[in-house]
Amino acid sequence: MRKKAHSDQLVPDLGNVSLTTPLKLDVAARLAFPDGSMKLSGLRCEITRGRLAYEMIAGKYYTTLGDIENMRRLCRVHATATAPVLKHNEMPAVAVGGVCSSMETGTSPQELLQANIKTCLTKSTSRTSVIQLLRHNPERHAGDIDQIPIAQVLSIYLCDHIDSESSRNDLSIEDRALIQCISRLNAYWGNITLKNVNTPAGKAYVKHRINKGSGRGGARRDLEVMRAAINHHSKENLHYGNVNVWLPDRGEPRVRWLTRAEVARMIWAAYRYREIQTIHVGPKKGQKVITGRRPLRHVARFLLIGCYTGSRAGTIASASKRHAEGHSYVDLERGIFYRKPIGKRATKKRQTTAPIPPRLLAHLRRWARKGIAQEYFVEFNGRPVTSVKKAFRTVVTLAKIDTSIGAVVPHTLRHTAATWLMQNGTDIWDAAGYLGMTVEVLERVYGHHHPDYQADAAERITRRPKMLSLRKRVAPDQPNG
Question: 154: Cβ–Cβ under 8 A, 6 or more apart, which residues?
Fold first, then answer.
């Protein structure tokens, strides 16, 4: 028997439909949810979230009752007793194991991971390790790619790539950037399964990041982290099947660099700036007064170290005058900057040891002698900074630096150092070693600043060609007889 649907479509008898019979979405909704509570739009929403598998044939969407059953299993929330009250240093276990490992708490893997990340970045307990904030290493169970949410993959990658012995306050800028990147990825991809990671989904994420105010470069970096997390998950033998992550094309490298006059203006602006506060009580309520606090002087020190060493922001922020685990070290006696943090493994970011220029070394020694740098050379209120992005933007505005030709960010100081070395005619091998950069990259991106760059060709192009005369070769006389 066949019965007529509301939209004049024929709905097959449920007895004639198997778990693998292809059904249009609206027909599948009527068969799987006879009470009429699920509509076509609801199944489309689940497809977007990555929980419902589908086929596209001749431009039409099809699914099966078996796929809907799998979707229901992913969406199922088990009944639990009243949630226990957690202590201030406790978090629920990160759900990254099997398909329903997080269902014991009635919370999805995406929500658990997001809550743990938020706690990791905002919790004020000083000596609590990051892995303890994420509770403990997640359980690892292998599964098919159509059953593993991205949140599980990201959780394992995060736990395996953050030092389990480092305290939350000792996180490097790179570690914090990784946590924030995983937070963004989890917010968008968390409930999507590995099977639904494809080119259209990647392009949709790029569009989403652009709508959020980021660029294609930021979206590409996020997708690179997700690709690394999926590859790590595969190497751990935790999923079956290949998953390829689409990446947008690389953008043009940033070539914005600062002149010495611009750097001087920024240092002067950061050093002289005094905080302005608003009076909230009394007869002068609403008036703005200039205080004696100078909250941007740490940016002046950051600028000097960045321009004279070409180090990355994370290396500068962790530079210490004492040997400390997880931090770079400045030897004030010998004048050497050990940029690779002590106890950390080497990465693709070349953090080579380099001598400190005499002019900068004099500043560093003075800061240490006068107590300006108590332990780290870039401190704010006596504590090492975790990021200077906001304060750096303020200094750029105060110094009235032209940003129409390119954004000026902390990494611009590395471009500036490389450009200055090339402009001064430094040997390219020495410059590459000093900056911790490959010769190929230095020559390709900054080589045109070198005074010898194509100098011979530019000089010879204006010369008149030399007229060479041909001399007749005279054969020697043959001896007689």
Answer: 113, 182, 185, 186, 189, 190, 226, 229
In the structure, what pLDDT confidence band is assigned to residue 82 with cuts at 50, 70 and 90? very low
Neighbours of 16 (CB within 10 A): 9
pLDDT at 89 over 60: no
Among residues 233, 104, 111, the alpha carbon closest in space to that of 161 is found at: 233
> Per-residue pLDDT for 477 more than 90?
no
pLDDT, tens digit, 9 for 90 and up, residues 123-150 = 443 334 555 555 444 667 888 888 889 9
User: Rounded to the nearest 5 degrees, what angle is found at the Cα of 176, between the Cα atoms of 374 and 413?
Assistant: 65
Cα angle for residues 349, 355, 361 (degrees, 5° grid): 115
The CB-side HSE value for 454 (13 A sphere, CA atoms) comes to 6
Instruction: Please name which of 168, 214, 43, 363 lies closest in space to residue 223, comparing C-alpha atoms.
Output: 214
Sheet strands side by side (includes 353-355): 329-331, 336-338, 353-355
Helices vs. strands in the chain: H and E counts, helices first: 18, 14
Phi, psi (rounded to 5 degrees) for 129: -75, 160
State the Cα–Cα distance between residues 251 and 215, nearest whole angstrom.
10
> Which of 176, 369, 395, 172 minimizes the C-alpha distance to 295?
395
Instruction: Look at residue 60 and give its three-state secondary structure.
Output: strand
Q: Which domains are assigned to the chain? A: 3-75 (no CATH), 101-240 (no CATH), 260-458 (1.10.443.10)
Note the pTM of the prediction, 2 decimals. Answer: 0.63
Other Cβ atoms closer than 10 A to 276: 10
Query: Residue 87: which residues within 8 A CB-CB, separation 6 or more?
Result: none
Q: Quick one: DSSP state of residue 447? A: G
Tokens at residue 292, please? 């004696």
Cβ atoms of residues 103 and 96 within 8 Å: no
**Predicted local distance difference test score (pLDDT) of residue 51:** 80
| 290 contacts: CB under 8 Å, gap ≥ 6 | 274, 275, 276
Query: pLDDT: is 21 or 137 the higher one?
Result: 21
Going by the DSSP 8-state scheme, the letter that residue 167 receives in this structure is B
Q: Are 410 and 388 in contact (CB under 8 A)?
A: yes
- How many other CB atoms are found less than 10 A from the CB of residue 329? 19
Contact partners, residue 26, CB within 8 Å, separation at least 6? 5, 7, 9, 39, 40
Q: Are 360 and 353 in contact (CB under 8 A)?
A: no
Interatomic CA distance for residues 424 and 252, integer angstroms: 25
Of the candidates 278, 108, 277, 125, the one whose C-alpha atom is nearest the C-alpha of residue 186 is: 108
Rounded distance between C-alpha atoms, residue 177 and residue 182, angstroms: 9
- Distance in angstroms (rounded) separating the CA atoms of residues 443 and 207: 34
Q: Which residue from 137, 229, 127 is spatially nearest to 178, judged by alpha carbons?
A: 229
What pLDDT shows up at residue 78?
53
